[in-house]
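Can you give me the bound-state structure? Components:
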Amino acid sequence: VIDEVRRRARVSGPAWTASLLADRVLRVNVLGRWPERRVPYDALERQVLAILEAWRVREPEVVARHLLYADLHGIVSHGVAMLRHYAAGPFTLHAATEVVRDEGATAVVDGGGGLGHLPADRAMRLAIGKAREHGVGAVAVRHSGHFGAAGSYAALARDEGLIGIALTNVRDPAVVPTHGAEPRLGTNAIAFAARELMLDIATSTVSLGRAVARWRAGKRIPTGWAIDAHGRPVRSGRVANEQRRLTPLGSRPETSSHKGYGLAAMVEALTGVLTESAVGHFLVALDPARFGDGFDGRMDAFTASLRATRRLDPARAVLVPGDPERAAQQDRAARGIPLSRSVVEDLRLVAADAAVPFAL
Amino acid sequence: VIDEVRRRARVSGPAWTASLLADRVLRVNVLGRWPERRVPYDALERQVLAILEAWRVREPEVVARHLLYADLHGIVSHGVAMLRHYAAGPFTLHAATEVVRDEGATAVVDGGGGLGHLPADRAMRLAIGKAREHGVGAVAVRHSGHFGAAGSYAALARDEGLIGIALTNVRDPAVVPTHGAEPRLGTNAIAFAARELMLDIATSTVSLGRAVARWRAGKRIPTGWAIDAHGRPVRSGRVANEQRRLTPLGSRPETSSHKGYGLAAMVEALTGVLTESAVGHFLVALDPARFGDGFDGRMDAFTASLRATRRLDPARAVLVPGDPERAAQQDRAARGIPLSRSVVEDLRLVAADAAVPFAL
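Here's the bound-state model for the whole set.
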């Protein structure tokens, strides 16, 4: 905590530090255990827009849409809860996005060292146009930052009747290569969207956020999520978050953690390495009609067949990737977005820091 | 075993059945425990070519090259050991490959219901040409069959200085969706190649072949590889092979098996569903030069940094995906390809069945 406070203090000065410390104490001891409340989408969007506008973020409505995609779909770690990190983070918040290369079926968008939402949105829209023209479009984003939920960009292509793929690396190493003792890769993400199938995953077994959530709920984390410097399982979410030694998907060498490690390395190659950036994204749109007719109907039959899989437990459905997010979206569109008290208090502080009214 | 014999007997008649039964008895009781022998690459290639030519496989040298890629790189389950399955399998061995659609950066190759090696080779070569012209090429293969190791096709692009991706589904379901009681997906594979990074993985925790290999070696399989119809861990490789209920990468719900399941579904969408085929492939080539200069050097620095990860056990190196296969390739190119006695005896039977001399 102290290191984090020091780092943020450098960026944001003493007022922020004091509020952050107070907030931390509150968060850990009280707020994390308070019940959540529901906020209508429009009200949350207005609040977020006010903050983004105060930060002079360009095209704030685009950024807000991708931020709120996460909250609306139940991916709470990647939505408005990130605003306090963005306020403190190493971003040029009002950075300009620029298409620096555009040729054939590929392009490169420069994010100017700002948040990733706007350049990734622009990149996927470019990729969609290229998929219409060439059948496939692949657009990289360089010099970017956190862009929220990867699925939000894959969904742009899907909503146009295409197949969408969105990859991102994550700046801070938190994943340990198989047989290694230290983190070398971020929780690099893969999103894939086609009709109702929406895969949106980190290539680690779990995110740091899930480990922390267990700790806040007073529960231990399962063996296989995180290790210590000696390779022993870490069972405390708090310790897992401090040590930042998450396992790659597969958890242990004998259950093929080298595969999750390899997937994380693949994503790093196509994002950070390809674009020579600390944070980069890679967006692909693909037109299924170029490969034959009837893709939509076959996808729907495929996802229906997966849901019809005989169940281990009659009370527990076999889901298709994207089903939980779709259920959350339907619930939240109707009943509002649940925000924990700690997120509400974060937003209150961020709004105060940005000198905009707090209206939630 | 009986079901398998019945199935093959339908295809290949009584002589095959008798030899298969004898072979099974030998394999299980004796051959699996005999030491392997080394066969020079050229000698093995000549033997394979003789068989493929007798089968009237088109462009047998291309098929042989992809088959032997697997043996040369230590992926023994996907190389010449497959020939006995190809002989018995549901393939039109002399099928013609045809480019049925070719437009912009995409194309479709029809495999004619034969083996997948030739159409996948043709598809990746098409994709490479498209990557040179458009920056990216994406080519699907429909009506195909088993194509060996996916990495063999990704390597074609890599060897041209590009990034290569090869995906395939697998005909027979062997992977159980999370919370499901029955297999619904094949051990669908993902290969990605860029410079020294070569990821070539099934999206299940392990392949059936690895479970069987444990059984032959007299060892139990780890918890997390396979389950029975009630979700309980299977610890016998023989039972795992019979039941065909492998776990998706991630193994258990609490260690995110939904991610491996989702990756398998993603591959199925881009192969079988996209191409309306029992077996389909999806090949992508990408020109890194379209996204900026210096990719090769950065990739090499990236893979070097992964290998330099501090080790848990000083005696156990942190590897880059592709390192084990590269080590196998160097060893086998110099010292010959190790073949187990059971594979040698398989090849002897396949050669006899095809009425070609056996020269190993």
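A couple of observations. Chain A has twelve helices and nine strands. Confidence is low (pLDDT under 50) at residues 11-31 of chain A.
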